[in-house]
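Supplementary Note 3. Input sequence used for the single-chain structure prediction.
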Amino acid sequence: MLKKMTLVGIAIGALSGSTAFAACTTTIGSVMSLTGSLGVLGQKIAQGAQLGIADLNSAGGANGCTLQLSLLDDQTSPSVGVDAAKKLVDVQQVPAIIGALSSGVSAAILTAVTVPGKVVQISPASTSPTFTELAEQGKTGGYWFRTTPSDALQGVAMAKVARDAGFKKVAILYLNNAYGQGLSKEFANGFTRLGGSVTENVVYNPSQPSYRSEVSKALSPAPDALFLIGYPGDGTTITREWIAAGGPQKFLFPDGLESQDFVNDVGVQYMKNVHGTAAGSSKTPSLGTFQTEYQAKFGSLPTQAYIPNAYDATVLVGLAMEQARSNKADAIRDSMRKVTDPKGEKIYAGAADLKKAAQLLSQGKTIQYIGASGPLQFDKNGDIDAPMAVWSVSDQGKVQPTGMVTVEQIAELRSQAK
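The predicted structure, written as discrete structure tokens, is reproduced below.
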């Protein structure tokens, strides 16, 4: 039986006068986790894409057309994600898809839908090194991009965070998907080279009623801390069972667990020694504009990771259409790097600058979009370099940013590891 797909916001268009009378409409697809284990994060991330559409339309749309966002829920399931992507590509004939969030879902969509269908896919949150490997093997056709750094960077950053916290022995429990596999490997390599040791590296499958056997294995020999790689839901169950089994209440959590709901569900009283990482945002003029606009539209500041990355992914697709004077997938693919040209005139987030970008592009000039998540320079594999944010849980039980591992620090650590 096919799992139910949820269709949300089939037409999130502009209401501004500048686009109300556009002669055409272009639909951009999006597949994100609005329910399932990543639903608590995905609902906020999707708002970043919605804001990107709104700003593009306020600036005049793209290639003379009003933009709409067709947003489908993948339920954090690869099979549901593939079904959703097929609907977008085969029925709605979208030239680009924003998403997915889970690396496992994105990988399934990439191999089953977007590459065979020759459709651009740009993820704001899929961090597995697998995508770099697929691109290097020529299996993405150049249609893959992401506005978040690979876990090849997050693994190194987390290794530094663990070392700086004084942990010498760390146990890893990781989700059995592309995200968990890649990040556990990168962290283990980085942490070992920094002088630490991984006591156990234990895989777990999602949606189990209990993880006592995996927890028991990870507890022997005794570690200083637990690095848990996964998502809210299963992550809550594992953390509670770890605590109940007498495991040290010292935790390393990645981006997938940067969630206030997760912390609350486990119990803030147990979260006194938490060290986390997630994709960071460089301090650019775009970030301030994005935060102001987001708060005005949705009523709160965007404190969670990947919301600005979703905004940037959406804006880049629109700018690529404008640069190419086309809404065709191949033209978008070929223009993605042209609108982030470091030799071009700098363009920042917000409708005013996006309107300026359209004017410059109409004059045949070059632009460099600098996003809310930072400068976006795609390499040949569709990857970017970016800082990693460090987060923790405050004495009041609130998830909060506490620092940053810079691009330069990550590069230095990676060179030491070679």
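The longest strand covers residues 24-32. The radius of gyration is 21 Å.
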